[in-house]
Amino acid sequence: MFFDQINEIDGNLKDLRGHLKDIGSAVDIHIDHLDDIAAHVIALEAIVAQILKKVDIDPDGARDWIKENTSASSENEEGSQKANAVLADLLK
Fold it and tell me: What pTM does this model have?
């Protein structure tokens, strides 16, 4: 009886190890996807930064656009604080 319980625990631990390896592999894949997204965002930001050097934009209009398009989803009347921070950084 005792050894049966030990064998069951051993089997459960081996199953758990397999599940943890699967989770680790899935996390690695998601990190790779996030890295791809980040690379695209950085490249787009580089392009926008170059455009902003040559084209005048209305900063207030950009802030208003963020407010109008993100206030509901961000649950903030002023819109997404992160988007506003990125905008401020791009406008430097």
Answer: 0.64
